C-alpha cells in the first residue's frame, strides 16, 4: 500500500506561484516602509520587524516544501518537518502582537507607523493561514475532513499559547533546545496551576478563537463562487 501523498498538481503549482508573488509583493511593501522609516528618522526603532517577518516565513517555507515533496520522501519527512513546522508556526501570527509597539514617536507621523505595523501584522497572519492551509490539506488527505479541521483548531490553540510564551515570557522557538528546562517548567506550572495563571489561558483562548474564526472566514471566502454554475451561452 502506498503511503505517499500527491505533490502539488500543475494547477496547484500555478496557484502557489500566484500566492508567492502576491505575498512577495506584500512583504516588499513592509520592507520598503521599514527602510523608508529608517531613512526619515536615522533610527532603527522598528527594524526588528524584519526579523519577525523572516521567522514568519519559516513555517510557510516548510509547508511549501512538504507540498512539493512526493512519494516515499514525503512519507519519511512528514512527521519531523511537521514537528519543526509546529514549533515555528507561532512566529507568524505573533506579529499581530507587535501592535503593542505602536505609539506616537517624533519624526514620523503616527499614521505611518500604524500602516507599517499593520502591514507586517497582515503579512504574518496571511503567511500563517497559507501555511496552515497546506498542513491541513495534508492531514485531510490522509485522515479526512474532521481530522483536518481538528488539526487546524488544535494548531491555532497551540499557536496562541506559543504567542503568549513569546510575548509575555519572552521565549523563542529555539528555547526548546537552548533553554528546555526553564521552558518546560513554565509550561508545566501553567498546566498544573491554571487558576494562578488566568492571563495565560485568557490570551490562549481569546487569541485562539480569533485566529480560528479568521482562518475559517478566509477558507470560506476562498471557495465563494466555486460551486456556482457556469454561465450558459
Report on the architecture of this protein.
- With 233 residues, the chain is mainly alpha-helical.
- The chain has one domain (10-223).
- The protein has eight helices and no strands.
- The protein has helices at residues 10-41, 48-68, 71-88, 110-143, 145-167, 175-178, 180-192, 198-223.
- Helix 1 (10-41) packs antiparallel against helix 4 (110-143), helix 2 runs parallel beside helix 4 (110-143) and helix 5 crosses helix 8.
- This is DUF1361 domain-containing protein.
Shape: globular
Mean pLDDT: 90
Low-confidence stretches: 1-6
Based on helices, strands and strand pairing, what is the structural class?
mainly alpha
In the residues, how many domains can be counted? 1
The main β sheet shows up as: none
Could you give the order of the helices and strands? HHHHHHHH
- CA(first)-CA(last) distance: 46 Å
Number of helices: 8
User: Into which percentage range does the β-strand content fall?
Assistant: under 5%
Helix amount: over 70%
Count of individual beta strands: 0
Radius of gyration: 20 Å
Protein name: DUF1361 domain-containing protein
Keywords: Membrane, Transmembrane, Transmembrane helix
Organism: Hymenobacter guriensis
Pfam families: DUF1361 (PF07099)
Amino acid at each position: 500500500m502506498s503511503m505517499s501523498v500527491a505533490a502539488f498538481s500543475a494547477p496547484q503549482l500555478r496557484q502557489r506561484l500566484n500566492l508567492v508573488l502576491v505575498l512577495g509583493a506584500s512583504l516588499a511593501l513592509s520592507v520598503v516602509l521599514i527602510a523608508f522609516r529608517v531613512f526619515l528618522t536615522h533610527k532603527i526603532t522598528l527594524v526588528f520587524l524584519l526579523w519577525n517577518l523572516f521567522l514568519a516565513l519559516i513555517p510557510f517555507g516548510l509547508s511549501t516544501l512538504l507540498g512539493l515533496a512526493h512519494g516515499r520522501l514525503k512519507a519519511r519527512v512528514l512527521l519531523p518537518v511537521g514537528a519543526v513546522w509546529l514549533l515555528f508556526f507561532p512566529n507568524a501570527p505573533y506579529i499581530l502582537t507587535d501592535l503593542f509597539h505602536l505609539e506616537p514617536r517624533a519624526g514620523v507621523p503616527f499614521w505611518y507607523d500604524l500602516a507599517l505595523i499593520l502591514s507586517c501584522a497582515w503579512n504574518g497572519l496571511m503567511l500563517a493561514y497559507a501555511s496552515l492551509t497546506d498542513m491541513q490539506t495534508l492531514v485531510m488527505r490522509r485522515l479526512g475532513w474532521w481530522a483536518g479541521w481538528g488539526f487546524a483548531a488544535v494548531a491555532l490553540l497551540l499557536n496562541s499559547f506559543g504567542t503568549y510564551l513569546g510575548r509575555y515570557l519572552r521565549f523563542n522557538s529555539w528555547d526548546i533546545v537552548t533553554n528546555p528546562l526553564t521552558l518546560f517548567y513554565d509550561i508545566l506550572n501553567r498546566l498544573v496551576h491554571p487558576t494562578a495563571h488566568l492571563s495565560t489561558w485568557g490570551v490562549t483562548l481569546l487569541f485562539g478563537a480569533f485566529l480560528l474564526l479568521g482562518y475559517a472566514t478566509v477558507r470560506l471566502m476562498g471557495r465563494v463562487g466555486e460551486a456556482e454554475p457556469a454561465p450558459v451561452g
